[in-house]
Amino acid sequence: MTYHGQKILPAIRSMKDFEKFLNSPYTYGVLLEVHISRVKGVIEYANRQGKQLFIHVDLIDGLAHNEAATEFICQEFKPYGLISTKGGVIATAKQKGIVATQRAFIIDSNALNKSIHLVKKTEPDIIEVLPGLIPKVITKIKKETGKIIFAGGLIETAEEIELALQYGASAITTSNTQLWDIMK
């Protein structure tokens, strides 16, 4: 299973990456590390090109990463989806009808258990698991939550992408533009 037919969700770090995304066959992408003054224009331009963006709320420069900021982003920018590590951001995005992705950093079994607990509390639409190279973690989170899983971080080859997909990820988030080309 893939995310709307995509194995890769391009993660956009620069305007050069944004141009590459616009000229790619991908519909869905993730906007990272952007200044607040650019967000609305980038989303509107992407939408005019038939593209849909997840906004990584925790990485927007010039904006707090809380419920009030999330409400502002949803009302003013109208992104396809939001990504955050914060439960309040996820809950607010869901209230506003925006696809909510809970980002979970799995560094040990304690982090895994806390992440599963938080997911069950916030009920995001999607979970992004980092690092994305731990197949048994992807499988466990998918089994325990029943959610769509994105895998991200430290994935460097097509084989690693296929392994993450095989173990239950629906797509891989990556800023490695070479992988965007390989997995078209």
From TrEMBL:
Task: State one Pfam family annotation.
Answer: G3P_antiterm
Task: Tell whether Transmembrane is among the UniProt keywords.
Answer: no
**Protein known as:** Glycerol uptake operon antiterminator regulatory protein
Per its UniProt record, what InterPro entries does this chain match? Aldolase_TIM, GlpP
Keyword flag Manganese: no
Q: Which UniProt keywords apply?
A: Glycerol metabolism, RNA-binding, Transcription, Transcription regulation
One of this protein's GO BP terms? glycerol metabolic process
Q: Name one GO molecular function term.
A: transcription antitermination factor activity, RNA binding
| Stretches that traverse the bilayer | none
Q: What is the annotated role of this protein in its UniProt record?
A: Regulates expression of the glpD operon. In the presence of glycerol 3-phosphate (G3P) causes antitermination of transcription of glpD at the inverted repeat of the leader region to enhance its transcription. Binds and stabilizes glpD leader mRNA.
